[in-house]
Amino acid sequence: MARVALRGYCQVRSGDKGDTLDLTVFAPNDGFYRALEEQLTPAAVLEHFRGLARGPAEVYPLPRVRGIKIVLRNALGGGGPASLRLDAQGKSLAAAMLRMTVEVPDEVLAATPFMRPPRAVLQAPGE
């Protein structure tokens, strides 16, 4: 087993409405999806967002698209104009979600390519 950050292997989509955050984490393959399904529990998500979200959290498996949908309430400091946060929208917490780590079996990790940013992002301007 290896502990890895989601950012290297998964994708996330986000949305928000008022003080509710809606995230879906997408796994790159079935083995990784099974690891997410076991570990992205409401308690684990609330712990990951400790200090940012009060909850409750709801987690819904979406096996046909290898996704885990997370609905996190009381997560945006009141939401939009009511919040004193610099960015009280779901997209900022989507990036934070990708910092979460999970344990993945070695054989699954070996079969899962690490996602790298596009080449243009890796080069300095003028290179």
UniProtKB/TrEMBL annotation:
Q: Where is the AtuA-like ferredoxin-fold domain?
A: 5-102
Q: One Pfam family of this protein, by short name?
A: AtuA_ferredoxin
Q: Known InterPro entries for this protein?
A: AtuA-like_ferredoxin_dom
Name recorded for this polypeptide: AtuA-like ferredoxin-fold domain-containing protein
